[in-house]
Structures are given as structure tokens and as C-alpha cells.
Design brief:
- With 918 residues, the protein is mainly alpha-helical.
- Helix content is 64%, strand content 3%.
- The chain is built from 45 helices and seven strands.
- The protein has a five-stranded parallel sheet, with helices on both faces.
- Helix 4 (112-115) links the parallel strand 4 and strand 5 (125-128).
- Helix 9 packs antiparallel against helix 10 (249-266), helix 24 packs parallel to helix 27 (590-600) and helix 43 (878-884) packs antiparallel against helix 44 (886-897).
- The longest helix has 22 residues, at 133-154.
């Protein structure tokens, strides 16, 4: 046997292909042997593993997570299994460096997987002509790739821009800080830094040089802060003995009381926490400690008093501690913490600038994570030394800023998970929503283990009601990603939480809004009967403040899937609300709930119907009538003519004496909805009435731009849906063509964002439908959209959707179709989620024999990692897509069936079952 030189840090390689098939097993085994013979790498093969308590899926997916590079072996004839799809999706999500090898020995037509790898961002792949070539080509691909990377490194193409710039921060302890901290304490905190580094980046390397008892306790309390240990496991008494050696007698007496307060805080005993802080404050004043220590204690006291008020449903306008802070003549300057905090913010800003200005040809291996860890450690250690509750808690906020910066700079999945963990832990809805919107790939790549990790992280919160809020936020945002077994545990835990909250006469009011949002967002996985019962309990218990929240959920879910007994109880309670004037006038969502109930359980709602007619206001009654009663041609026409009259009245009065009115109800859209939902037959007189009102709006100088856009869409809709032969459409397009200046001259209401650009784009769509469009005009307007903002792009996509939803692809010039398709495709990869969503919606309407290959490939890619909303919309079209391209749609269905999201996975499995039955 040859002697091998040991390589300490080998590359971990994951080989993916079909398992349990002799020829695949042979190829994988031989490829593993060749790679490992180099001594550079270790290869994972599923069949080489021993017995395990983990499932097979857990075993191979966790091994993929731990790998450095993946090699996928795919035979065109065999395609891919659901297990391979899971591995491909996992590799894309994290993301992993991947090598793809395809064999076309028996089938030349490439797989859909291969087609989706095309493009600058696609992975490099190789096509073999023989199945056995997988062995040598897989080996050569990996070794050549390693060599190329090293060659690029040697040619300075892989640059660490921060290398050489990072110097150890020299700590200068001035006379004020020397009372509380000595330089040597900060120099021996490697265990603490290692822990913080590990939270930021699991692969961070920190060499343990030196440490001390103080460092050990700092790291130990980090375990408490991050939920790894309870406060009872932290030996505060022995920690105080360590601190006593480093602090003056007077300072130690103050810090000792501050740490008592911290212990009470972690036991959710705010009353005793406040008492200890008051003692600490009194002693700090008695001993004449520096002003910054006194102010720091006042801040702890103010924050804790405010939190206690929140817990008791009280709003503390100005606590005694806040009053004292207001009267301080000296601005608070926290020695060292303020300095390191400033350095941290400067480093974050520096890296943001560096990332934004670096050359696109430079690949950066950045080590500023080490700087972040170092500064976070120093701030935290000083906070622990002084017993500063506020600054200890702010460790999470500072970690959040670091995570945000790293998410901006890198696509590494663990940075996204870290940001979501700390954001959900803070429980701020709008902040969480903003992060998800900005880094909207987070849900496309989320899996069950990540979501469970985030949910469990909420247990690190010491205050009960804040922990409940964080868990409700976690359920709201991640409930569909939990595995079935994990979801059952979380589901049962939160039902108890919600039931206890409803039953508690001293419930914390602020928890309510989080509770209802979590229920609504999980309504497709939660038992709907349980949700309705919880809403009913709110009404029965007369929790008036939350009636609208409960009614909104009832309106969202309806009673279609609710058992008979519970349905009747719900209807009885809704009847009680309708009859009680004082209640119904305060319930903004009552009408929505009534409509949903009437439509889903009409057979039980005769009494409810009479009560609505007798007691509801005229406005609500009108909506109710349209939604539940207008279902005949005669009734529908009557409603349409009523709205046409109102449109003409708006045209007459808009802009008189410089007064402009924006309306909440879009009458044009309402008319379209009535026509579509009730299959109204459009006859000559009705069509002319609609077109005349629309033309009036379009040609009015005093109409809002938004109303003109709606009128143009109405004309397009009528033209595409009217089969009446005696309608003179040429008259209407001629009037618009001859009065272009009037058409594009509209009033831009400051409360509406729609602009003249959006108006002109809709006018181009009108010309397209009326076959009056010049190709140069289309070139000009599409070319201008590269410089416009996101709102304008969304409005353009909405105009395309509104035009193409009536199946005109095969009726228009192919040149126009291809130009518009290219425009939509260019927007389908936009970072903005709404732009991508409307792009996909438009692409689904633009599929023809000529465009299907390009569009379906893009749709299939979206099924890998895009949001649930986009995937769900694509799935709504699966029945139609199966008739267009069976092969590609089958792959999309398979992708859906192994998706991490519960609803998408369930729908995918339902499609597979349906196809098997057929």
C-alpha cells in the first residue's frame, strides 16, 4: 500500500444519483474510490452509512448540508427521482457548489433540469456519451475545478479586500473606565468570542489562545441569553466572587444588585427586578459613582418599568426614571461601549460601501466577520462586567444589524436564518415583514429544520408575554414549513396558549393582534373548526376589542368546511351582533363575515338574511346584495346600469372648482366582476352604455389618471369579450387616436401613485388590442422602463395581464408578442417579489406553441426556490399546462410534491394522486 500524505482539512464531496440500481451504485462506488485516492477529499455515499435513528431523508440531506461540493449524475433516459430533486433543491438553497453530469447515451433530448442550468448564473455541466463515463468525467470535473480555483487564487483573481487592513483594536482604559473595567479582562475573552462567532457563521475559525474565569462566566451567560441554558443553571454567586476580585468595593455592591435584577428579569419577575434596580441606583448615588453608571441604571429601570406597564396593559407616559434622565445635565457617554458600538457601526458602513463599490470581477473572501465578532464580544463583556441589563439585551439587536449587513453582502443561507431568528425573537411585525420583503428568497429556501430552529430560539426570551408574541410571529411566518410531527407539537402548544389567553381576565391586550394573524396565516394547516371555535369564544366572552379580528378570520375562512353544530352557533352569534345596534356599528368587518357565511352556508341563513335587510346600513346592504343576491341577467344588468350612471355623474362633477375626489370603490372593476362572475351576456345597448361612460372618462381633462387607466382597461375588456356584431368599435378607437392630448392629460392625485407613464402604457395595450399599434412606439415605451421605479414596472405588468387574460396571444402580431414576452422575462428575475409575481402571472398568459419552451423553463425554475405565492399561482395553472407540455409540467408537479412548504407539497401530492387515478 502506498504511503499517503495526510490532508487535515479535506474537501467533503456529496455524490447524488439514483440509489438501489446496480449500474448507478457501481458508478458511484468507483467515482468515490478515484476521488478519495487523491487524498484531497472525502466522499459521502448513502449506501455506505451504518444504521441510524434518523430517517433516510435526514441522513442524506444533512450530509449534503455538511458537504463542500455536490456531484449530480443524471441519465437523460431515467430522469430524476423525488429524492434527487430534494437534493438539487437543497444544494440550490444553501447554496452548494455543484457539478452536473448528464448522460445522453440512450436519449439525446436534454432533461428539463439541464435546460434550467443554461445562463450565466447556471451551474457548469458536462454531457457524457456513455454511462460509464460518469466515473472518469466526474473525477476529472472535480479535480480540474479545484485546480482552476487555485490558479485563479494564484493570479490574484480571488481577493480578500480586507486582508491586511484588520488590526487588533488596542484598548485604552481611561480614568473613568478604570473604575469598572481593566484592559486585561478584555484580552482574555476567547471563549465568549468563539461563541458569538459561531452564532454569526458556523464555519468561523477562532483559535483558543487564552482565557480566564471571567471569560468562562461570560460565555456561560451567553448560553442563557441564546436559550441554551436556563438562568438557574448560571451560577451567579460564584460569578460575583470572580467580579469581586476585579471591582472596587463600592462598584461591586452596585453590580451585585444589578445582577440580582438580571436574575429576576430572566424569571419574568419584573416587580423584584425593579426593586433591585432601585437599590442599585440608590447605592450608586450614595457611593458617588460616575454619572454614566447612574444613567445606565436609570435606563435599565425605565425600560423595565415600561415593560411592566405593557404587561399590565398600562401605558407609562413618563416613569420616574425617565423624568430623572430628562433632568440630567450631562449627556450619557458610556466609556468603551459607546466607542466599540461606534466602531461596529463604522465597520458595517465600511463593508456596505466596499460591497457596493467592488469590481464585478473580484471575488472577496472577507474576514470582517472576525471584526464583527470581536467588537460584539467587547461590548457584551463590558455590559456583563457592569451588570447592564439593557446592553446585555441589546446584544441581539447588534447581532441583527450584523446579520442584515451580511445578508446584503452575501447570499449565504445561514445569514438569512440568523437575521430571521433575531428579528422574530424581537417580535416586531413591520421589521420582520420588511426583512422578508427585502430578502424574499428566504421562504423559497426555508426548510423544516430551519423553521424549527427559529421557533425554538423564541424560547430564549425570558419574559413570558414577549416569548408568546415571538412564537406567534414564528407560527405566522413559518408554520407551513414545519414537518408534520413538529407542527403537531407547535400547534398543540399554541392552542393552549391561545385558549389560556382568551380565558384569562388579566390577558395582555397587545398579544391579541399577533394571535389572530397567526391563526389566519395558518388556516390551511390548522383545523378550521378549532379556528372558528376560538373566534366564537371571543364573541361569546364579549371581548369587544377583538370582535373585528375574530370577524375578519370568519370572513376569510367562511363556514364551508365547518361542522353543522359549530356553523349554527356561529350564525346565531352573528345574528346577535346584527341586531345589537351599538355593537354592529362598531364592527368594521361584520359585513365581510356575513357575506362569507351567507355564501358558504346559505341553507342556514334565512334569519340572518332577514336581519341584514332590516338592520344593516345602505352601504353594507348594497355590497351584500351584489355578493349574495345578484346572479341573474336582469339583476346584473340593473346593477351595471346603476354603476354606469354613477360613472357619468363622476365624469360630470370631477374637477369642478378645482376639487378632485378619489373614490375607494373602483366601479369599472366592479362592473367587470359582475360580468365575469355571473357570465353576463353583453348585448348592444349595454355595451354602448359601458363604452360611452368609459370614453367620457378617457377624454376628460379633469379626470384622475387612475380613473383613466381603469376606463382604458374597461374598453379593452369589452372589446375582447363582446361578440355583438353591430358595435362600432372603430368609432371609439378613432376618438381616442384623434384626441391623444386629451387622453394623456389627467390629474395626478397625490394619494394615488399612478402616473402619466402608466397611462401611456395602458394606451399602448389598447392600441395593441385594436390592431392600431406601431412597432416603434412599442420599442420606445418598453425601452424606457429600465430607468423607471418598481411601482411603474408593476403597473406595466398589470396592464399586460389585464390585456392578455382574454386569450389574445394567437390574435396579435408575433413580433409584438415576442417583444412583450422579452420585456416580462427581463422583469421575472427582479429582486422585488411583487415584480416577479406579476411577471410570472403575465408569462402564464403568454404561452403559445412558439413561446412555451422558454416560458415553461422559467416557470419550472421558479418552482425551485421562489415564494409560495408564485409557486401557488403556477400550480393553479397545472391542469392547463399539462395539456401544453406534459413532460415539463410533470417535473414541476414533482418539485411541488417535495417542496418544503406544506400547502405546496400537499397540492403537489394531490396532483400526483389525481394523475395516477386518471
Amino acid at each position: 500500500m502506498k504511503d499517503k500524505i495526510a490532508v487535515s482539512d479535506k474537501i467533503k464531496v456529496f455524490v447524488s444519483s439514483r440509489c438501489g440500481v446496480e449500474r448507478y451504485d457501481r458508478v458511484r462506488s468507483r467515482l468515490k474510490y478515484l476521488i478519495e485516492e487523491t487524498g484531497l477529499a472525502e466522499v459521502y455515499l448513502f449506501e455506505d452509512g451504518l444504521a441510524s435513528t434518523q430517517t433516510a431523508a435526514q441522513d442524506y440531506l444533512y450530509s449534503l448540508d455538511d458537504s463542500d461540493v455536490c456531484i449530480f449524475l443524471i441519465d437523460n433516459e431515467d430522469g430524476v427521482t423525488p429524492a434527487i430533486l430534494k437534493e438539487i433543491n437543497r444544494a440550490k438553497a444553501y447554496p452548494k457548489k455543484s457539478l452536473y453530469l448528464f448522460c445522453n447515451e440512450k436519449q439525446k433530448e436534454p432533461t428539463q433540469i439541464q435546460k434550467e442550468l443554461v445562463g450565466a448564473q447556471g451551474a457548469r455541466y458536462y454531457i457524457t456519451k456513455s454511462f460509464d463515463d460518469f466515473i472518469i468525467k466526474g473525477y476529472e470535473s472535480l479535480i480540474n475545478d479545484i485546480c482552476k480555483i487555485y490558479n485563479n487564487y494564484c493570479k490574484n483573481r480571488l481577493v480578500d479586500q480586507e486582508f491586511g487592513e484588520n488590526k487588533e483594536v488596542e484598548i485604552e482604559v481611561d480614568s473613568i473606565a478604570s473604575e469598572s473595567l481593566e484592559k486585561r479582562i478584555l484580552s482574555g475573552t476567547n471563549r465568549t468570542k468563539l461563541f458569538i462567532s459561531g452564532q454569526i457563521y458556523s464555519n468561523a475559525i477562532n483559535e483558543m489562545i487564552e482565557t480566564n474565569d471571567f471569560d468562562a462566566y461570560c460565555e456561560d451567560f451567553l448560553q442563557v441569553l441564546f436559550g441554551g441554558k436556563s438562568i438557574r443553571e448560571f451560577n451567579t454567586s460564584m460569578f460575583m466572587d470572580v467580579l469581586k476580585k476585579e471591582q472596587s468595593e463600592n462598584l461591586h455592591k452596585v453590580v451585585k444588585n444589578r445582577w440580582k435584577a438580571i436574575q429576576y428579569y430572566w424569571n419574568d419577575d419584573l416587580e423584584n427586578c425593579i426593586e433591585c434596580l432601585e437599590v442599585a441606583l440608590s447605592k450608586a448615588k450614595e457611593f458617588s459613582l460616575p454619572n454614566w453608571i447612574i444613567q445606565d441604571i436609570l435606563i435599565d429601570l425605565r425600560n423595565t418599568v415600561n415593560l411592566s406597564g405593557y404587561k399590565n396593559n398600562e401605558i407609562i407616559i413618563e416613569s420616574d426614571a425617565q423624568k430623572e434622565l430628562n433632568h440630567e445635565t450631562k449627556a450619557l457617554f458610556y466609556p468603551l461601549i459607546d466607542r466599540y458600538d461606534k466602531e461596529l457601526q463604522e465597520e458595517i458602513t465600511k463593508q456596505t460601501i466596499s460591497s457596493s463599490t467592488k469590481s464585478p470581477y473580484t471575488f472577496s473572501w472577507s474576514n470582517h466577520i472576525n471584526i464583527y465578532s470581536d467588537l460584539l464580544t467587547k461590548i457584551y463583556v463590558i455590559s456583563v462586567f457592569n451588570g447592564s441589563l439593557t446592553h446585555i439585551l441589546m446584544t441581539m439587536d447588534r447581532l441583527k444589524y450584523v446579520a442584515f449587513n451580511l445578508c446584503n453582502e452575501y447570499s449565504d443561507w445561514q445569514f438569512r436564518v440568523l437575521l430571521l431568528k433575531v428579528a422574530i425573537r424581537n417580535g416586531k411585525k413591520e421589521e420582520i415583514k420588511g426583512y422578508i420583503k427585502l430578502f424574499n428568497d428566504v421562504f423559497g429556501k426555508m426548510n423544516s429544520s430551519d423553521s424549527l430552529e427559529i421557533f425554538k430560539f423564541c424560547n430564549s426570551i425570558p419574559i413570558n408575554h414577549k416569548r408568546d408574541i415571538a412564537k406567534l410571529e414564528a407560527l405566522k411566518n413559518l408554520g407551513y414549513y414545519l414537518s408534520d410531527s413538529d407542527y403537531e407539537v407547535v400547534h398543540n402548544e399554541l392552542i393552549i396558549l391561545i385558549e389560556n389567553w382568551i380565558a384569562d381576565d388579566y390577558r395582555i391586550v397587545a398579544v391579541g393582534s399577533y394571535l389572530f394573524e397567526a391563526l389566519r396565516e395558518n388556516s390551511h394547516r390548522f383545523d378550521k373548526n378549532i379556528i372558528i371555535k376560538l373566534c366564537l369564544d371571543i364573541i361569546i366572552k364579549k371581548l369587544y376589542r377583538f370582535y373585528d379580528d375574530a370577524l375578519e378570520i370568519i370572513a376569510y375562512i367562511g363556514l364551508k368546511d365547518i361542522n353543522e353544530e359549530l356553523s349554527k352557533k356561529t350564525i346565531d352569534e352573528i345574528n346577535r351582533l346584527i341586531v345589537d345596534k351599538s355593537i354592529r356599528e362598531e364592527c368594521n368587518n361584520l359585513a365581510k363575515a356575513i357575506i362569507a357565511i351567507r355564501k358558504s352556508k346559505k341553507e342556514y341563513t334565512s334569519v340572518l338574511h332577514r336581519n341584514v335587510l332590516e338592520h344593516m346600513t345602505n352601504f353594507n346592504l348594497e355590497i351584500y346584495t351584489i355578493e349574495t343576491m345578484v346572479d341573474t341577467q336582469e339583476d346584473s344588468e340593473e346593477q351595471i346600469l346603476k354603476y354606469i350612471f354613477e360613472l357619468k355623474e363622476r365624469n360630470r362633477t370631477q374637477g369642478i372648482n378645482g376639487s378632485y375626489t378619489g373614490y375607494a370603490n373602483n366601479l369599472y372593476q366592479t362592473i367587470k366582476n359582475i360580468i365575469k362572475l355571473n357570465n353576463i351576456e353583453l348585448h348592444g345597448e349595454l355595451v354602448n352604455s359601458i363604452l360611452e361612460a368609459s370614453l367620457e372618462t378617457v377624454l376628460s381633462r379633469k379626470q384622475l389618471i387612475s380613473d383613466k387607466i381603469d376606463a382604458i382597461k374597461m374598453i379593452i375588456f369589452v372589446k375582447q369579450n363582446c361578440d355583438v356584431g353591430n358595435i362600432n368599435f372603430n368609432y371609439y378607437i378613432k376618438e381616442i387616436r384623434n384626441n391623444k392630448e386629451l387622453v394623456i392629460d389627467g390629474y395626478r392625485d397625490p394619494f394615488f401613485k399612478k402616473t402619466n407613464t402608466s397611462l401611456q402604457f395602458n394606451l399602448v395595450m389598447l392600441k395593441l388590442v385594436f390592431e392600431d399599434l406601431d412597432i416603434n412606439l412599442l420599442f420606445d415605451i418598453l425601452g424606457s422602463y429600465g430607468e423607471l421605479d418598481e411601482f411603474e414596472k408593476i403597473e406595466a405588468l398589470k396592464a399586460v395581464i389585464s390585456t392578455f387574460e382574454n386569450d389574445i396571444c394567437n390574435k396579435i402580431d408575433k413580433r409584438f408578442l415576442f417583444m412583450l414576452m422579452q420585456f416580462v422575462l427581463s422583469l421575472s428575475h427582479n429582486k422585488n417579489h411583487d415584480i416577479r409575481f406579476y411577471s410570472i402571472k403575465a408569462l402564464l398568459l403568454m404561452i403559445t406553441e412558439d413561446t412555451k419552451t422558454t416560458i415553461l423553463t422559467q416557470l419550472s425554475k421558479r418552482m425551485d426556490y421562489d415564494s409560495v405565492f408564485i409557486k401557488n399561482h403556477i400550480m393553479n395553472q397545472f391542469d392547463r399546462l399539462l395539456n401544453i407540455d406534459l413532460k415539463v409540467t410533470n417535473l414541476m408537479i414533482q418539485k411541488a410534491s417535495v417542496d418544503n412548504h406544506y400547502v405546496i407539497r400537499k397540492r403537489g401530492l394531490d396532483f400526483l394522486e389525481k394523475m395516477m387515478l386518471e
